[in-house]
């Protein structure tokens, strides 16, 4: 491991599902303590990028390295050691349905050699408290709302205090106040642990409030079209797609479909 190498570096990554190209030419660097945003329209490949960053999908081309170590060049032992430093909240929350919320949150803590069973439970209850789910520790995932499942997934990801945290749409399904609290929670985790956080979000207030850096993936050209701090991109990036996204405007060349844009009445609208 090189001391001066970035915590995470992606170089000329190409992501494909079979023949289907999702994104190409993705390069980025994330240093310790950075809050990094992955932005772009629906379907551009944000979740797919996160899955490449946590070693769930191998690159079609290019490299993903941690501390200068190429994740896919090493053997499974090296990969497993690197993965121990990641926490991940999936877009779907991905909780184990047969386990209670408390058991779900305890699970990754089992890798933690320093904690015995009582210590794991205490830690799990502490993080459930942070995300406002302490009273629901003994519930099963099916008994929680979408936003609550998301918070349970977040508690599971942050429990071991990993140096690298990946959060796929952590505030989706949260009301604005919970979303604001989540921003504070992410800042607090960074302050206390020095972790870097990579997050996918469509929430403009969160992007502008907490992200230090970011990348914008374009679904049409299938490559990144902007790099930088979201609030600076909002003020200075003149790419029409980035501008429209960060100012929440319709792109002039791509008006919303009439059926989607028109208010609907009666049964069947949602
Ligand atoms: N396992 C898979 N096999 C084949 N195609 C996939 C697979 N997973 C995702 N895709 C496709 O890859 C593209 C990117 O998907 P992805 O979920 O990464 O988008 P996204 O940017 O996260 O979108 P959203 O904002 O809606 O979550 C989509 O067209 C999707 O259908
Ligand atoms: Mg996604």
- Shape from CA axes? globular
Mean pLDDT: 88
C-alpha termini separation = 51 Å
- Regions with little confidence, pLDDT below 50 for 5+ residues: 258-270
Which percent band covers the strand fraction?
15-25%
Strand order of the largest sheet: 6-7-8-3-9-10
The topology string of helices and strands comes to EEEHEEHEHHHEHEHEEHHH
How large is the count of helical segments? 10
Number of domains: 2
CATH class of the largest domain: Alpha Beta
CATH superfamily of the largest domain: P-loop containing nucleotide triphosphate hydrolases
The helix/strand class is alpha/beta
- CATH topology (level 3) name of the largest domain: Rossmann fold
How is the biggest beta sheet arranged? 6 strands, mixed
CATH architecture of the largest domain: 3-Layer(aba) Sandwich
- The beta-strand count equals 10
Hetero groups in this structure are: adenosine-5'-triphosphate, magnesium ion
C-alpha Rg (nearest Å): 19 Å
Portion of residues within helices: 25-40%
């Amino acid at each position: 491991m090189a001391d001066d190498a970035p915590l995470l570096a992606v170089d000329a990554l190409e992501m494909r599902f079979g023949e289907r190209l999702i994104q190409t030419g993705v390069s980025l660097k994330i240093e310790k303590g950075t809050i990094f945003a992955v932005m772009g329209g629906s379907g551009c490949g944000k979740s797919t990028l996160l899955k490449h960053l946590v070693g769930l999908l191998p690159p079609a081309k290019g490299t993903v390295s941690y501390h200068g170590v190429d994740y896919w060049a090493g053997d499974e032992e090296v990969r497993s050691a690197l993965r121990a430093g990641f926490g991940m909240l999936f877009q779907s929350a991905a909780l184990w349905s047969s386990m209670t919320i408390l058991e779900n949150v305890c699970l990754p803590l089992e890798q933690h050699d320093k904690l015995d069973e009582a210590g794991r439970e205490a830690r799990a209850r502490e993080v459930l408290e942070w995300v406002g789910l302490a009273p629901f520790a003994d519930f099963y995932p099916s008994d929680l709302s979408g936003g609550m499942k998301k918070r349970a997934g977040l508690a599971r990801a942050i429990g071991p205090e990993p140096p690298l945290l990946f959060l796929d749409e952590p505030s989706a399904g949260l009301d604005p106040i919970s979303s604001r609290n989540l921003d504070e929670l992410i800042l607090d985790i960074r302050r206390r642990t020095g972790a870097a956080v990579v997050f996918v979000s469509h929430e403009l207030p969160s992007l502008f409030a907490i992200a230090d850096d970011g990348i914008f993936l374009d679904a049409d050209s299938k490559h990144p079209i902007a790099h930088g701090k979201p609030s600076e991109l909002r003020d200075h990036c003149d790419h029409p797609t980035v501008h429209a996204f960060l100012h929440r405007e319709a792109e002039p060349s791509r008006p919303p479909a009439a059926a989607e844009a028109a208010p609907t009445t009666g049964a069947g609208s949602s």
